[in-house]
UniProtKB/TrEMBL annotation:
Cellular localisation: Membrane
Lipid bilayer topology: Single-pass membrane protein
Organism: Nyssa sinensis
Entry keywords, A to Z: Leucine-rich repeat, Membrane, Repeat, Signal, Transmembrane, Transmembrane helix
PANTHER family, A to Z: OS07G0107800 PROTEIN-RELATED (PTHR45631), SENESCENCE-INDUCED RECEPTOR-LIKE SERINE_THREONINE-PROTEIN KINASE (PTHR45631:SF202)
Listed name of the protein: Leucine-rich repeat-containing N-terminal plant-type domain-containing protein
GO cellular component entries: membrane
InterPro entries: Leu-rich_rpt_4, LRR_dom_sf
Length: 214
């Protein structure tokens, strides 16, 4: 009992970070009081490091199947001692932030069963290949791998340009056709008037016309 009373409170930066994560995702977990202290009241889904009278720090966070939506919480980057993170089987979206590749003590990162998109940070992939990190990314259908992101980006960039050029050409052709039709009408009108003025007339018709005038 005395040992529990003497236990230091959780590192304040970790407390601030986990509270922001709770607020961002609207978590309904029964997270009350200090996240890591006393040890017997450790928050559900958390694991903390304890070293003498030093402030405990969060080293593991499990939010699997917690109904999470939106993008990865930036405050996760403030849990600097975090070793294990499980965000599997949620509805998280967006690209993976670079800070996930820069966490210094990673051991496991489980992002299975979400809707993440875009490319995977190269450093994250490198750590996984080197055996420094257990990385789970399956069941994220919008991830692009092996250079497909670049191809997709180029395709998305080229299509609007082609469409714009095609629209401009169509408009230009329409203007040319209208101008040609107008020009042709003008030429026909001039030709008709010219033919009428140059047509030879019978002098008797002029005399008769003048006679009718009197």
């Amino acid at each position: 009992m005395v040992k529990q009373l003497l236990q230091s409170p959780t590192n304040q930066e970790d407390v601030d970070a986990i509270m922001k994560i709770k607020s961002l995702y609207g978590l309904t977990k029964n997270w009350q009081g200090d996240p890591c202290a006393p040890r017997i009241s450790l928050w559900d889904g958390l694991n903390c490091s304890y070293s003498g009278f030093s402030s405990p720090q969060i080293i593991s966070l499990n939010l699997s199947s917690s109904g999470l939506t939106g993008e990865t919480a930036p405050s996760i980057s403030n849990l600097i001692s975090l070793e294990d993170l499980d965000l599997s089987n949620n509805s998280l979206t967006g690209q993976l932030p670079e800070f996930l590749a820069e966490m210094p003590f990673w051991k496991t990162l489980n992002l299975t069963g979400n809707n993440f998109s875009g490319s995977i940070p190269s450093l994250l992939v490198e750590k996984s290949k080197n055996g420094l990190l257990s990385l789970s990314l399956s069941e994220n259908p919008n991830f692009c791998l092996s250079g497909s992101c670049t191809k997709k980006t180029n395709k998305n960039f080229v299509i609007p340009i082609v469409a714009a050029i095609a629209s401009s050409l169509a408009l230009l052709m329409a203007l040319v056709i209208l101008w040609s039709l107008k020009r042709r009408r003008e030429q026909v009108a001039v030709l008709v008037e010219s033919n009428w003025n140059n047509e030879p007339r019978d002098p008797n018709e002029d005399v008769q016309a003048r006679g009718r005038g009197f």
